[in-house]
Amino acid sequence: MGRRSDHTREELTELVLTAGHDIVATKGLAALTARAVAERIGYSPGTIYSLFQNFDELVLHVNARTLDRLYDQMAKVELGDDITANLEALLVCYFKFAEDHQRDWAAVLDYTVPGRVSLPAWYTPHIDQTIAILERAVAPEIAPNRRRSFALIAWASVHGLMVLASAGNLAAFGAPSPADLAHDMVRYLATGAAADAARPAR
Amino acid sequence: MGRRSDHTREELTELVLTAGHDIVATKGLAALTARAVAERIGYSPGTIYSLFQNFDELVLHVNARTLDRLYDQMAKVELGDDITANLEALLVCYFKFAEDHQRDWAAVLDYTVPGRVSLPAWYTPHIDQTIAILERAVAPEIAPNRRRSFALIAWASVHGLMVLASAGNLAAFGAPSPADLAHDMVRYLATGAAADAARPAR
DNA sequence: ACCTGAACACCGTTCAAGT
DNA sequence: ACCTGAACACCGTTCAAGT
Q1: CB of A30 within 8 A of CB of B112?
Q2: Do B37 and B89 share a domain, yes or no?
Q3: Angle at CA A167, nearest 5°, toward A28 and A95?
Q4: In the 8-state DSSP scheme, what is residue A200?
Q5: Do B30 and A114 lie within an 8 Å CB cutoff?
Q6: Which among A74, A189, B64, B102 is most buried, taking Cβ atoms within 10 Å?
Q7: Nucleotide nearest to B2 (CA to C1')
Q8: Nearest CA in chain A to B30
Q9: Does the distance separating the beta carbons of A184 and B188 come in below 8 Å?
Q10: pLDDT tens digits for range B147-169
Q11: B contact test, residue of A54, A60, A157, A187 with most B CBs within 10 A
């Protein structure tokens, strides 16, 4: 019992997050518990609470890792001058990621911290980096002062589709595949936004 | 202890669902537990499991109630010949409902049955009825064979916005209000879909 | 100082035992 | 036949006690 100091605080945090992400990726969000993480790294449950305020924060950190991996993939997509082509390319990348990371991505989609009204400040950039890619993707046709808003709209739209698909809410309605719906969706949004920008008055 | 027969099975189910919805509406999803429901109706926890296979099913039934109340409001919206105006009117109704039913609507947005791949068949119509309203709303400009698909796209888009807003994921990004974003969103979708339909070839 | 592990207050769920 | 309530196997979380 007692003192070990096998690892620094930073090393321990890294161990916990790696173990946590492994558990989510292989067994899903429901299998991610403090005891499971502790057992996997060979520490007691209590240790986790010296690293994280509570378990929700651990889950958010694990999800932040998954978001970073999505960003790594999205950042590789080559963008051109056609907004619709750009969005389609990003969509293909996103759907491939979601398929390759079914359980850990489902955790990002599904997890909501009970009772929380806003996300912690450190979490925001993990999403923001990918939204920034979206802004660059729509730059060719969307005016600078509308880009952020449009990127958020596109992000939220596809997010909604994925959330519903993940929960099994789409197949039941005779919907085409989520991928087909998403492609139509972003095309509508892109042409609609372009037409809106071309209107004489707002 | 033992036999009471104060209520029929149907009455008991009704009691449970009313109590469950009350709890969710006033205290939120986290407060909805089998013990809390049982205590409120004056029965033991075990009784609940003679009415529902498991607790997830109880939550889904409570959420189905909330969806029905949304439908009741949405069905009152008067629809005209302008697809954008129709969607805007439905949006106003939806946002009002979400504000009037913060906790019970958040439960619908947030709840995902762990490990489930598809929703139970009885649950589908509770969503479907509202999607049907959307289909009627877009009828003036969307061809019959595209209506369902477009209604699903619009539904999923707004859903994504609400999910993100509910989780506190939008305010952090310097976004306009969810309502403003939603209005832009459906306008883009409507004009985009109309432009798409007018294209010479698919 | 660091870490343990037992304990606390909860869950969902089951099922022998009462009426 | 209907319902109880104690029990089981879990949770997240805390904290006195060990090294």
Answers
A1: no
A2: no
A3: 80
A4: S
A5: yes
A6: A189
A7: D3
A8: A114
A9: no
A10: 999 999 999 999 999 999 998 88
A11: A157
Give the residue among A17, A169, A200 at the shortest CA–CA distance from B125: A169
C chain positions with any atom within 7 Å of a protein CB: 1-7, 10-19
Are B100 and B6 in the same domain? Answer: no
Which CATH number is B38's domain given?
Answer: 1.10.10.60
pLDDT tens column, B55-64: 999 999 999 9
pTM: 0.94
Domain boundaries, position B107: 68-198
Q: How many residues does chain B have?
A: 202
Interface probe for A, chosen from B33, B55, B112, B117 (most Cβ of A below 10 Å), is: B112
One digit per residue, pLDDT tens: chain A, 202 residues?
666 778 999 999 999 999 999 999 999 999 999 999 999 999 999 999 999 999 999 999 999 999 999 999 999 999 999 999 999 999 999 999 999 999 999 999 999 988 777 899 999 999 999 999 999 999 999 999 999 999 999 999 999 999 999 988 888 787 789 999 999 999 999 999 988 877 654 4
Kindly state whether residue B183 falls inside one of the protein's structural domains: yes
Q: Tokens 């999205």 — which residue?
A: A74
CA proximity to A141, closest of A81, A187, A77: A81
